[in-house]
Each structure stands twice: as C-alpha cells, then as structure tokens.
Amino acid sequence: MTRSLPPLEDPPEPEPSGDLRPTDRRAVVVAALCGAVVGWFVLSVFFLTEAMVPILPWSLPVILAVVAIGVWIDARVLSRKVHDPHREVSPTEGLVSLALGKSVVLTGAALAGACIVYIITFVRQVAIPYPRQRVITGSVTAVVCVLLGLAGWVLERACRVPPDGEARHREGADPGRAGGDSQPAH
Q1: pTM of this prediction?
Q2: In-domain check, residue 58
Q3: Mean pLDDT value across the chain
Q4: Domain that residue 124 falls in
Q5: What is the pLDDT of residue 77?
Q6: Tally of structural domains, the chain
Q7: Which of 14, 48, 134, 162 holds its CA 20 to 30 A away from the CA of 61?
Q8: How far apart are the two ends of the chain, measured CA to CA in Å?
C-alpha cells in the first residue's frame, strides 16, 4: 500500500499589513510610569535590606548625553537623506532607524521616570551632603534622559517619507523647467 502526498505548494504570501505609527504620548507616559515603578522597587529593596543607596556616577549622564547626541546626528543625516530626491534610503536603514528611534524614546522616558523617583526619595534630605549629591546627579541624569527621549523622537520623525512632490519643493527645483533654475519657495 502506498500513499501519495499532495504536491508541495507554496502557501500564498499574505499581503503586507500593519499600522506602524509614531510613538504617542500615552506610550511615553506609560514608559515613564513603568520606569518610576521599577525605580521605586529597586530603592525599596535597598531600604528593606538597610543597604546604602548608591550615588549615581557622573559618567551615567555623560554616556547618555553622548548617546543622545549620536542619535540626534543620525536623525539629521537620515532626514537629509530622506528629503533628497537623488539619494535613496535602504529599507533596512529606515527600519533600523525607526526601531532605534522608538526604543530610545521609550528608554529615555523610563529612565527619566526612575530618576524622578530617585530624586523625590532624597529631596527632603537635601541639607545632608550624600542625599544632596544624589539629588544633583539624579536631576542632571533626569534632564539628560529627557533629552535622550527627545533625540529618539527626532530620529523617529526623520524616518517619515515626504509625499512625492514635497522633496522637490523643499529643494526649490521646478521639475518642469530646464537648466535647473530654482525659485525660492513662498
């Protein structure tokens, strides 16, 4: 007895679908609240074990600032590339930049939320040297985390592709004119 199997057929490929949207405020607020909860939990562990809460090192805001500057530079470069009709952005580059932008926005918000809880915990003891240093470094780190989130938001916005005619309009070139004359946009 032999059994014959149906021929292998490739299943039909589904049509691409999706609703990828820019990161909305609600997601940023939820990330900040999640960061605050995690920060509160970590601080609670230190207080329950009666361990000394560490002072944030100054290298943390410096490293986060360097990352924010790098993301912002990437956003500027990508924005120019997207709006230049003579240059092409590969799909991989666009997708990686979009994913990086979204993750940096949410990471910056979560870290800022954790830093705010860190600051609030010690702000009442600001007259004492160690809590004062925790408040100062925590405040600087929180500001840098907000800037990191803004850099991610700028990168996410740079991934938007303009409508077909807008790129030429921004460059000032009139596609119907010969010789490449350009007129200023009004």
Answers
A1: 0.75
A2: yes
A3: 84
A4: 25-162
A5: 92
A6: 1
A7: 48
A8: 82
